[in-house]
């Protein structure tokens, strides 16, 4: 039996899945098996996956009869784990050659139940378009500090990416099964909530070497011109509306249930909610000002046309 189980959920992933699987096959650590769970794809995904099954005995492919949804597909892969360590792997991401080895090395320490590395965003052509220099703070040994930073940072700072770290299966399975079985109303930031539960419950290890490449595709990606993805480190506009925050907060309550940090998390979520309300009011005022300027501009145009036949 391998020591690392890699679960790859996919739906219509034919554009990037070969690059994803190839980067896993090129890992310096070879003691792993990969299960690809296809959510009833309608493109070339089955054909591509079956080719890999023929080429590499470590790779298995399972096709769902119908599209069971993203959350259920994650849960299906979790239920299939048969190794000491496991990780979810998106079908459009890539990993540096040492990613699996670095995570296994961190997990070899008895106290560590979750491991991750530095990361970047890549575009449709595998070029780096954004770095993340702040991720280490979510691994702060002072857990109160880590939780506070994690909750108050806006989602655009890449918090969701932690879901793609590596886990010690035996220790985390109860929490992950329970969380993924909850009636989460929508998928917005469910991964952010899941990660918060990990921070509250388990010891985490971090290798700051950049070995995870999260793909961020844009319709403006140009093979002849590299365009960085720019995000202000602390944006004025939070980016989460009140409806999404309400459902996100419910997911967070599931994630931290029965932990010693649940009261702290509730207080921080109250504060975060206030910030979101203020940022939404700010956004509304900006939109109203822009609308007022537009209407004024239209009046000027009509005035010029009436008096000057312009």
Protein architecture, described:
This protein has 310 residues and is an alpha/beta fold. The protein has nine helices and nine strands. It has helices at residues 17-25, 45-55, 70-79, 99-107, 143-152, 169-180, 190-201, 242-255, 262-308; strands spanning 4-10, 32-38, 59-63, 85-88, 94-95, 114-122, 128-131, 166-168, 204-215. Strands 1, 2, 3, 4, 5, 6, 7, 8 and 9 form a nine-stranded mixed beta sheet that branches. α2 links the parallel β2 (32-38) and β3 (59-63). Mean pLDDT is 88; it is low at 234-238.
Layout: helices, strands, pairs:
Layout: E1 4-10, H1 17-25, E2 32-38, H2 45-55, E3 59-63, H3 70-79, E4 85-88, E5 94-95, H4 99-107, E6 114-122, E7 128-131, H5 143-152, E8 166-168, H6 169-180, H7 190-201, E9 204-215, H8 242-255, H9 262-308
Parallel strand pairs: 1-2, 1-4, 2-3, 6-9
Antiparallel strand pairs: 4-8, 5-9, 6-7, 6-8
Helix pairs in contact: 3-6, 5-9, 7-8, 8-9
Q: Please give the radius of gyration in angstroms.
A: 22 Å
Please give the alpha-carbon distance between the first and last residues.
79 Å
Q: What integer is the average pLDDT?
A: 88
The stretches of 5 or more residues where confidence is low (pLDDT under 50) are 234-238
In short:
This protein is an alpha/beta fold.
Provide the descriptors you would attach to this structure in a database record.
nine-stranded mixed β-sheet; 9 strands; alpha/beta; 9 helices; 17% strand; globular; single chain; 310 residues; 43% helix
């Amino acid at each position: 039996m391998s020591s690392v189980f890699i679960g790859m959920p996919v739906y219509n992933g034919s554009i990037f899945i070969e690059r994803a699987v190839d980067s896993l096959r090129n890992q310096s650590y070879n003691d792993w098996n990969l299960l690809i769970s296809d959510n009833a794809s309608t493109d070339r995904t089955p054909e591509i996956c079956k080719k890999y099954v023929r080429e590499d005995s470590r790779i298995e492919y399972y096709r769902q009869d119908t599209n069971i949804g993203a959350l259920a597909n994650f849960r299906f892969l979790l239920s299939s784990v048969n190794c000491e360590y496991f990780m979810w792997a998106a079908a459009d991401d890539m990993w540096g050659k040492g990613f699996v080895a670095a995570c296994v090395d961190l997990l070899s320490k008895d106290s560590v139940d979750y491991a991750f590395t530095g990361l970047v965003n890549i575009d449709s052509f595998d070029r780096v378009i954004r770095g993340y220099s702040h991720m280490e703070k979510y691994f702060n040994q002072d857990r109160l500090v880590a939780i506070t930073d994690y909750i108050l940072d806006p989602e655009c700072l890449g918090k969701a990416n932690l879901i793609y770290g590596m886990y010690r299966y035996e220790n985390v399975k109860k929490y992950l099964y329970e969380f993924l079985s909850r009636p989460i109303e929508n998928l917005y930031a469910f991964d952010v909530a899941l990660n918060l539960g990990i921070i509250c419950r388990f010891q985490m290890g971090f290798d700051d070497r950049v070995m995870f490449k999260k793909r961020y595709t844009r319709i403006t990606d140009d093979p002849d011109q590299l365009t960085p993805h720019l995000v202000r480190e602390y944006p004025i506009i939070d980016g989460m509306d009140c409806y999404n925050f309400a459902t996100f907060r419910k997911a967070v309550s599931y994630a931290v249930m029965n932990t010693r940090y649940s009261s702290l998390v509730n207080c921080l979520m109250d504060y975060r909610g206030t910030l979101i309300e203020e940022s939404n009011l700010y956004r509304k005022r900006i939109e109203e000002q822009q609308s007022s300027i537009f209407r004024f501009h239209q009046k000027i145009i009509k005035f010029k046309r009436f008096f000057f036949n312009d």
